[in-house]
Design goal:
The protein is 19% helix and 34% strand. It is elongated, with a radius of gyration of 22 Å. By secondary structure, it is an alpha+beta fold. It has helices at residues 59-80, 143-156, and strands at 9-10, 16-20, 23-27, 32-36, 42-45, 49-53, 83-90, 95-99, 103-107, 114-117, 123-127, 134-140, 166-169. The protein starts with 8 loop residues before the first strand and ends in an 18-residue tail after the last strand. The chain has two domains: 9-80, Outer Surface Protein A, domain 3 (Alpha-Beta Complex); 83-169, Outer Surface Protein A, domain 3, CATH 3.90.930. The longest helix is centred in the middle third of the chain and has 22 residues, at 59-80.
C-alpha cells in the first residue's frame, strides 16, 4: 500500500463531505470544491476522518492512491483555511496596482504596462509598507490555481541574476552573480 494513500484524512469541524461515486463534494466556510475520483476508487467515512480505498494493487492504482489522497487533503485545507502565496516586486519604478477586483496593472520596466487578469477564485491584495518591497498577496481555496497564478506573475519579470530586480516569491533566495571586474588586468 502507498504510505501516503493509506493515511486517514482528518475532517475539521465546519466541513461537510458528501460522496456519490465517483464525485466527492466538500463544503466548508471558505467555499465548495468537487473532486472526480478515478474509476474503482471509493471513500470510507467515519466520524471525523476519511479513508481513500483503491480497487486493486495494480501499478496505476497504487500511483493514483497517494495522489488523490493528497488532492483530497489539499481540498479540505483549502475550504477550511485557504492557501496563500506572497510575491515581492523588487526594482526602482516597478509598481503594481489593483484595478477593480480582478485586474492587476503591473509596471515592470517594459515600455508598456501589463494588465494581468486574475482567474475566478483568486483574490489579490497589494501591501506596501515603508522600507519594504512591494508585496502581492494571492489567496484562493485551490492550491494548484494559486500556485499557477503566482508562477505566471513571476514569469512576467523573473529576478535578474546580477541585481536581483524583478518579481520573486517572498521566501525565495536569489544568489547574485558577480558583475564585470572593472580594471582587472590593466597596468
Amino acid at each position: 500500500m502507498s504510505r501516503v494513500g493509506r493515511k486517514p484524512i482528518a475532517i475539521p469541524s465546519g466541513v461537510k463531505v458528501s460522496w456519490q461515486a465517483p464525485v466527492l463534494t466538500l463544503q466548508g466556510p471558505k467555499g465548495t470544491q468537487t473532486l472526480r475520483l478515478p474509476e474503482g476508487f471509493s471513500i470510507e467515512q467515519s466520524d471525523k476522518e476519511l479513508k481513500l480505498l483503491r480497487p486493486s494493487d495494480e501499478k496505476r492504482d497504487r500511483a493514483l492512491h497517494g495522489t488523490f489522497r493528497a488532492l483530497i487533503q489539499n481540498a479540505i485545507v483549502g475550504i477550511s483555511q485557504g492557501f496563500q502565496k506572497v510575491l515581492e516586486i523588487v526594482g526602482i519604478g516597478y509598481k503594481a496596482e489593483l484595478k477593480g477586483s480582478d485586474v492587476l496593472l503591473l509596471t515592470l520596466g517594459y515600455s508598456h504596462d501589463i494588465a494581468f487578469v486574475l482567474p475566478q477564485g483568486v483574490k489579490a491584495q497589494i501591501v506596501q509598507e515603508r522600507g519594504q518591497n512591494l508585496r502581492i498577496v494571492l489567496e484562493s481555496i485551490d492550491k494548484q490555481l494559486v500556485g499557477q497564478v503566482a508562477a505566471m506573475l513571476r514569469n512576467l519579470r523573473p529576478p535578474d541574476p546580477y541585481k536581483g530586480k524583478g518579481v520573486r516569491y517572498a521566501d525565495e533566495v536569489i544568489k547574485l552573480k558577480a558583475g564585470k571586474a572593472k580594471g582587472k588586468g590593466k597596468k
